[in-house]
Amino acid sequence: MEAIILSGGFGTRLRPLTYTKAKSLLPILNKPMIVHLIETLPKEVNKIILAVNYRKDQIENYFNENDFGKEIIVNDEPKPLGTGGATKFAEKHITGRFLVLNSDIICSLNLKDMIKFHINNKAIASISLWPVENVSEFGVADVRENGKIVGFVEKPKPEDAPSEFINAGAYCLEKKVLDYIDTGRLVSMEKEIFPQIIEDTNRFFGFKLKGYWMDIGRISSYIDVHRFLLNRNKIKKFQGNNCKVFGTIKETCIGNNVTIGKNSKLDCAVVYDNALIGENVELSYCVIGENCKIADFSDIRNSVIGDNEKLIENTILDNKAVWTQPIPEGYPDKQIGNVIEK
Ligand code: GTP
Per the confidence metrics, is the pTM higher than 0.85? Predict the structure, then answer.
């Protein structure tokens, strides 16, 4: 069975981290987020198709150097095709029923159970569902007791929401779903293809996942997922190799070769490899990119510092994204992910 992993997005909401790195390679507890996903694949998945575009070389290099015991195909789109277009573009590698997975979700979904659910329902398409309180920010599934989905309502007012369940970003699909998708254009699976399948087949189902689910779309959710996994694993901090820590760190993850000077305090921070944090620095709820230098007496809160940035002594920042280098050519200045432009 094949699994298409959608990993071609620009990750605009995770700027400036995604100016230098593919979103799916951003580390979570020092391991690329896509690897957390690959570790949840059941053994019947023997082939992984990576639907890539932006920063495809980084992704290809990573998978050339690391073996996950499954065949890996790097499927490079000529241009961003969206979630549907990227799935269609992988058609030549699909032999039958297959999975499509967003690479930016950390969750406790049991894919084996979801495939079983799909087969038992004789579904054409099944999607994972997750309950939320803030329904008005999402596409909400109109889901029946038996799991059948009869429609979606985009960003409903709470009183108009057909349920509390939203699309949780994992799909089990029959091969014929590919016939619904046009070749070579930007297509949203969620907004264009799923409604059509519901209308035509009435065999569209939702699998409610239990446990936890986090969409790593924003800097805040990126920090929160670290905090969540640290607490879940009952560890106070996570540290790579060769670190020199003279300060105190709490609910924090630091990469390899990181130095943290005397009297510095880190609380809910994510610090990438080779960062140098000076003395008497306070970092709270921030991400510090690779090779960054944060000089003494700085106080940084609720902020993200892109790779290779150097901050001078006494830098005070709150709610800032720091990037002083050129923006990569072709990087969009707005979110394009699932947004359809016709
Ligand atoms: P934002 O720009 O911050 O919205 O992030 P994104 O580009 O990752 O978009 P979004 O979060 O909507 O994407 C959901 C999933 O689909 C992620 O795993 C993306 O990598 C992937 N994705 C989005 N657009 C494309 C695309 O055009 N091609 C491919 N191959 N994957 C995509």
Answer: yes
